[in-house]
Amino acid sequence: MKLLTLNTHSLQEENYEQKLEWFIEGILQEKPDIIALQEVNQTSDAAVAEDILWEGLYSIPAQVPLKQDNHAAQVVYRLRQAGVACHWVWLPIKLGYGKYDEGVALLSLGRKITAAEAFPISKVNDYHNWRTRAVLGMQVEGLTDWFYTIHMGWWDDAEEPFLDQWKQLEERISEKRRNRFVWLMGDFNAPDFVSGQSYEWILTNGWLDTYSAALEKDRGITVPCVIDGWKERLKDQEVKAMRLDYIFCSHRVCVKSFQVIFNGENRPVVSDHFGVFIDTKEKIV
Fold first, then answer.
1. What pTM value is reported for the model?
2. Distance CA 156, CA 274 (A)
3. Which of 41, 72, 216, 256 could form a disulfide with 279 if both were Cys (CB 3.0 to 4.6 A apart)?
4. Domains of the chain
């Protein structure tokens, strides 16, 4: 099974159309089974999407309709045009930069979605508050696994600390985690070099970092420089690159390979984050 996660930055990216094409080319060549995306946006005042852009969409309750320039819809449309059966689900979470409906999405290449769920993990649940956070999960036909796309807050946020959000997440998925494989994929805002905070907390709660488990891997760096949200937090530290994006698994699993993708070395850069792409062998119970 091949899994890919990427914080897309979507319509905020310069040269968006070119980067969208690079992203599609990478997917068509690497052929991931499941794709988790964060910062998936659409222009809030754009026209409602044409019928063709709704194809393959698994419907869940949402605060806003799908718009014509929705990033996930555009990805799926191009994949379908290339002959790839793609099923997907999108969750709008908040208004970003005053003009984007921003959320998260999950794509399944080949297998239909059989179930999906969405729930808040932040204390604030206001569409116009940028601190609002929510999680989206799905199951696909033929598998009992649950796949979640996640974009967490920061450990030291005074109003919405990571730990409070993590506890909400754990509470909601604890039952599923007991008897099946659960995959947490996304931008955790959890640098692995900071001791006693987010990354260590996740590991001590029994989650497997697929990077550590991989038989073949690269450096794992997913952010090449200090980006928005980190400049003040790391102002006294000499940090040039970080691992912020992860794929965690609830059980031990054999990971054949772990690659950072769309980083300029392994495919062109398409976002301010790089992607994480893993290939797993059979599961270990």
1. 0.94
2. 24
3. 256
4. 2-283 (3.60.10.10)
